[in-house]
């Protein structure tokens, strides 16, 4: 039942049940799992159930007293009894209203706390998901799951659970009373009940289908919003002038979901109309047969009136209970969609006996490592090399060769399929993920800065760092003077993804951030974008400080970096085809020489001043 999102030998992404339109599969295990969320609130749940039971009992009093009013108080002109009966009925109504307030509070307490628990569980779970999950999942789907699906759960308790119990209690107590009063009339009143059930089931099915389609359209809408109204999507849309096309797409989905919502509410209206017609048939039958029994002298007028009033308490709950089929399906479907997410195993986890390890000044050894994103298409094969402690190892090779993939295996963003990766003598699988990742600094090409101040972005690496340490890191990354030149200095807000800064500035800030983290190992993907010579000069200087005395693996795009490397690995088609120093590799006259001729001798890749 669990879904794998990766692991040795492949990274299959299973499509979620959400999209396949299947009706939820209501099993005992599923119900038990849903019930487990209510367990922490069992005390409140019992109080709610007790309140519902008492309310249903209190609700019986006014219709029962009608009989005494009509049969005893009125014919005997007994004003005292009349007032007494009316007051008791009134008191019962007020009491039931008052405990109803307590019940509403408890409803919302239980529902909101279950939502709170599930949201936390979901967030924690999504944090554990591997990178592959986020490359595969539709944009917007995670947000839909976190917000509308989990928020929908709050309605489950107040509508489904409370509705079900309260209708059941009302039905049971009222039916008992009716049969106790007169079983013949009770059976007659029940004759119309099957008439409710048929249309209710039919409408239930129709509404369920519409609800499902609405949910899908809402998810599509979220997807479009996420795709086109995020920074990168927005730029893509603007630069390819696709505003109208995107708008048309959005309008279509929007129109579709609006139409569905109208259909859903209208389906309910027709349904109510049909039901209300049937509810008038029952009392007619009672008047007819009850009238006959009265003429025969078998029952009183009060009994007939009381009976009709009680019958009114039957039809509502019967209708709602049959309709509950839709609610239950919808609720279980919500839980199912959420459980689908919970069941995806976070495949990259600590091994049971993993230990925190200090990895300073140790060699990194890849031995016959293989990896595949897709089971039948290996991305890496037989990767073996040693990155010697305190030295820089450069990875070079054509685009798509597998360089990024190699670097992603080290901090276990992806899991190797075969072979071993060791730091010193310890396999990275035997280290805790926390100790491994806390000692690796990753500088990616597209340095991600979140929308906050420069200070917040820097301190993210080490919130215990002092102001002085932060400034020293920025000085070492040659970005301090630039930051001080900004009107708000370190308190400057960088904008979404650091949009308000240039590529070179962003990369230097992210180098400062890694310096502040001060890890033993640096993994760097050098930016390919051509920077102006001054910017590039400063980045080179920042890099040399960053990599000093560190064990580093750098995906190198600049000749100056390659020349500075202690060891160069040439990657092609997922394997290492050559390795050595720059001069040795040139002399070899193979792939590296070609690459060098094509890539590094171009003017834009010349060394910085
Ligand atoms: N998340 C992914 N899912 C499936 N395939 C992937 C994924 N990431 C990369 N690949 C594929 O794996 C191969 C190696 O990609 P990788 O990014 O490691 O190459 P690279 O050498 O770093 O290229 P570049 O220099 O262009 O960044 C490519 O064929 C790529 O299409």
Q: What's this entry about, in short?
A:
The chain is of the alpha/beta class and 609 residues long. The protein is built from 20 helices and twelve strands.
List keywords for this structure.
single chain, 609 residues, alpha/beta, ABC transporter transmembrane region fold, Rossmann fold, six-stranded mixed beta sheet, four-stranded antiparallel beta sheet, 20 helices, 12 strands, 61% helix, 11% strand, disordered N terminus, binds adenosine-5'-triphosphate
Explain the layout of strands and helices.
Elements: E1 3-4, H1 28-36, H2 42-73, H3 79-128, H4 131-136, H5 141-181, H6 183-190, H7 193-228, H8 231-239, H9 243-295, H10 301-342, E2 344-345, E3 364-374, E4 377-387, E5 392-396, H11 403-409, E6 418-423, E7 426-427, H12 433-438, E8 440-443, H13 454-459, H14 467-476, H15 480-485, H16 503-517, E9 521-525, H17 533-547, E10 551-555, H18 559-564, E11 567-572, E12 575-580, H19 582-588, H20 591-600
Parallel strand pairs: 1-2, 5-10, 5-11, 8-9, 9-10
Antiparallel strand pairs: 3-4, 3-6, 6-7, 11-12
The protein binds adenosine-5'-triphosphate.
If you had to describe this structure to a student in words, what would you say it looks like?
The protein is of the alpha/beta class. The chain folds into two domains: 320 residues, ABC transporter type 1, transmembrane domain (ABC transporter transmembrane region fold); 128 residues, P-loop containing nucleotide triphosphate hydrolases (Rossmann fold, 3-Layer(aba) Sandwich), CATH 3.40.50. It has 20 helices and twelve strands. The strands form three sheets. Strands 8-9-10-5-11-12 form a six-stranded mixed sheet, with helices on both faces. A four-stranded antiparallel sheet has the order 4-3-6-7, with helices on one face. The chain has a two-stranded parallel sheet with strand order 1-2. β3 and β4 form a beta hairpin. α14 crosses α16. The two termini are 60 Å apart. 32% of the residues are buried. The N terminus and C terminus are likely disordered. The site of adenosine-5'-triphosphate has 11 residues, from α11.
């Amino acid at each position: 039942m669990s879904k794998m999102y990766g692991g040795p030998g492949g990274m299959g992404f299973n499509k979620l049940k959400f999209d396949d339109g299947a009706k939820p599969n209501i099993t005992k295990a599923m119900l038990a799992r849903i019930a487990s969320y209510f367990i922490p609130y069992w005390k409140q749940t019992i109080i709610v159930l007790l309140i519902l039971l008492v309310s249903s009992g209190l609700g019986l009093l006014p219709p029962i007293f009608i009989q005494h009013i009509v049969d005893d108080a009125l014919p005997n002109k007994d004003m005292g009894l009349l007032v007494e009966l009316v007051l008791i009925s009134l008191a019962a109504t007020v009491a039931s209203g008052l405990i109803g307030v307590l019940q509403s509070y408890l409803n919302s307490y239980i529902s909101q706390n279950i939502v709170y628990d599930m949201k936390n569980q979901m967030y924690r779970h999504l944090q554990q998901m591997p990178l592959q999950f986020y490359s595969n999942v539709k944009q917007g789907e995670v947000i839909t799951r976190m917000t509308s699906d989990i928020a929908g759960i709050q309605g489950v308790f107040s509508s489904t659970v409370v509705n079900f119990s309260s209708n059941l209690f009302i039905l049971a107590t009222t039916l008992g009373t009716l049969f106790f009063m007169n079983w013949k009339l009770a059976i007659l009143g029940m004759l119309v009940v099957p008439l409710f059930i048929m249309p209710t089931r039919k409408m239930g099915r129709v509404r369920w289908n519409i609800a499902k389609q609405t949910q899908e359209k809402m998810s599509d809408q979220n997807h479009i919003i996420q795709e086109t109204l995020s920074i990168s999507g927005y730029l893509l849309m603007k630069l390819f002038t696709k505003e109208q096309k995107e708008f048309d797409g959005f309008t279509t989905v929007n129109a579709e979901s609006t139409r569905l919502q109208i259909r859903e509410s209208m389906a309910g209206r027709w349904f109510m109309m049909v039901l209300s017609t049937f509810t008038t048939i029952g009392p007619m039958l009672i008047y007819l047969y009850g009238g006959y029994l009265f003429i025969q002298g078998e029952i009183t007028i009060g009994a007939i009136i009381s009976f009709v009033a009680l019958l009114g308490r039957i039809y509502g709950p019967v209708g709602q209970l049959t309709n509950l089929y839709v609610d239950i399906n919808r609720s279980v479907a919500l839980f199912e969609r959420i459980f689908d997410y919970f069941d995806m195993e976070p495949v990259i986890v600590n091994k049971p006996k993993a230990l925190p390890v200090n990895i300073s000044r140790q060699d990194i050894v890849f031995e016959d490592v293989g990896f595949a994103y897709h089971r039948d298409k290996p991305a890496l094969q037989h990767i073996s090399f040693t990155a010697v402690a305190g030295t820089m190892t450069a990875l070079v090779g054509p685009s798509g060769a597998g360089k990024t993939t190699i670097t992603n295996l080290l901090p276990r963003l992806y899991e190797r399929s075969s072979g071993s990766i060791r730091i010193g003598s310890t396999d990275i699988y035997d280290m805790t993920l926390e100790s491994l990742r806390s000692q690796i600094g990753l500088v990616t090409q597209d340095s991600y800065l979140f929308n906050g101040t420069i200070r917040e972005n820097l301190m993210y690496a080490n919130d215990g760092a002092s102001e002085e340490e932060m400034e020293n890191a920025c000085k070492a990354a040659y970005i301090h003077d630039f930051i001080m030149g900004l009107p708000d200095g370190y308190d400057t807000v960088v904008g979404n993804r650091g949009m308000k800064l240039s590529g070179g500035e962003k990369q230097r800030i992210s180098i400062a951030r890694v310096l502040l983290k001060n890890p033993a190992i640096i993994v760097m993907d050098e930016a390919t974008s051509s920077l102006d010579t001054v910017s590039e000069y400063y980045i080179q200087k920042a890099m040399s400080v960053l990599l000093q005395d560190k064990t580093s693996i750098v995906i190198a795009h600049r000749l100056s970096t390659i020349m500075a490397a202690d060891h160069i690995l040439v990657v092609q088609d997922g394997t290492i085809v050559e390795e050595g120093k720059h001069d040795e590799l040139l002399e070899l006259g193979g792939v590296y020489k070609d690459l060098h001729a094509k890539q590094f001798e171009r003017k834009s890749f010349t060394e910085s001043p």
